[in-house]
Amino acid sequence: MNFLNVPTGTYYLSVSNTFGCNKLANFTVGVKPFLSIALTNASEKPATCNLANGFYVPNQFSTLPNFYTFIWQNEAGTAINNQLALQNVNSGTYKLLAEDSNGCKKNIHTATIIQTGNPRIQRSLLNVLSDSCNLSKGSISNASASVGVPPYQFTWSASNPNFTSNQTSIFNLSAKTYRLIVKDAYSCGDTVNIDLNNYIENLPTPIYFTPIKLLKGEEARLLLQNPYTNNGLFTLTNDLNNSIFQQNSIGNFNLGIQRKSSTYKIELSKGTCKSFAGLVKIMAFDSAELKMPNAFSPNSDGVNEDFGLPFKSLQKLESFVVYNRAGQAIFSTNNEEVKFTGYYNGKSLPVGTYYWIIKGINIFGRAIVQSGSVTLLR
Fold first, then answer.
1. d(Cα 113, Cα 107) in Å, to the nearest integer?
2. How far apart are CA 278 and CA 211, in angstroms?
3. Could you give the domains of the chain?
4. pLDDT tens digits, one per residue of 130-139
5. Residue range 291-312, pLDDT digits in tens
């Protein structure tokens, strides 16, 4: 007789014959132990780029695996793979169960797969400096990344014209859109576009003393009164035809000998940025002497009614004195706008010759003393 499919335990068998003889025997049904096997070496790769692409591949066991079958289970205990290699999985904890030739099963290994994710560009740490006046002076610096798996590779690109760089900081940039791509050790990536603008600098209008008064044949020199030290270019042109005379980075100009009155225009530029033009007038005179009339007629006809200095012919009038033939001062002023009208103490002076002396500072800043005579007519 067969005694099959019974649980473990101690069992008794009683045997008797027709003669009334009995025999009792006992036996124990036990459990065969699991045929031990252990995983001793494996290759693994985390899940990356937020994809289910991780794997765990056993390479070596403590005994030959040929007489075993294997099953991988997830954390919920669901069988997900009956192959030896665990492939194309996301992050999680996975158990490897082995079943021996006796049908015994055992968890022989636990594998943990992590998800590294995508690297992230640290946008808040980027330093962006705009270009200025289209001089290609912009920059983007301090590119960095987090998460993912270092080392990171940075690639910058732009078009029109084409631009590429693998540095974390890029310089001498013109205004355009720059793309930064970062890749980690598993080629997972992040991308950001950065618009680098052009800043238009408001350049100061060059300031010079004007007008410059001088004698014909003297040299003229322009000295800038508001220096600009940030790499600008000063251009001196003729105001009449805009022809360029000189250019420099300081703003001072030697105009050489002047033989006629002229007007010059000076502009400050930097790249495509330009200032408003500063104008300088050069007033060239034949002589420093005052051109005084030699006669006047205070007769109320509205013509040549008084005698005095031409309008703004001096920087400063110290004294203007008129004398009669006896040497008596009959008129005196230090106001250039006050004229001698042919009267003294409210009385009309007689026709005749009178003498004058002028002291002051001329238009060139030089002290002068000039004298002469004038005829009073009626």
1. 17
2. 12
3. 1-115 (2.60.40), 120-199 (2.60.40), 212-285 (2.60.40.10), 295-376 (2.60.40)
4. 999 999 999 9
5. 899 999 999 899 999 999 987 7
Return the structure tokens found at 154. 């940075």
Report the alpha-carbon distance of residue 365 to residue 96 in Å, rounded: 105
For the chain, the C-alpha Rg in angstroms (whole number) is: 54
Four-residue CA torsion sign, 177, 178, 179, 180: negative
What strands, in cross-sheet order, belong to the sheet with 54-61?
A: 39-45, 54-61, 86-89
- The secondary structure of residue 115, as a DSSP letter, is B
SS3 content of the chain, % helix, strand, coil (to 5): 0, 50, 45
| Euclidean distance between CA atoms 174 and 272, whole angstroms | 12
**In contact, 368 and 358? CB cutoff 8 Å:** yes
* Single-letter residue type at 128: V
* Three-class SS state of 60: strand
Say which residues have a Cβ less than 8 Å from residue 301's Cβ, sequence separation at least 6: none
pTM: 0.67
Residue 1 has pLDDT above 70, yes or no: no
The pLDDT value recorded for residue 260 is 92
Place of tokens 């999985």: 89
Any residues with CB less than 8 A from the CB of 350 and at least 6 apart, and which? 376
Where residue 251 falls (left for φ over 0; alpha for ψ -120 to 50; beta otherwise) is: left
46 half-sphere exposure, CB direction, 13 A CA radius: 13
Nearest Cα to Cα of residue 92 among 108, 70, 109, 76: 76
Strands (E), 175-239: 176-183, 189-196, 198-199, 212-215, 219-222, 233-238
- CA–CA separation, 349 vs 324, rounded Å? 9
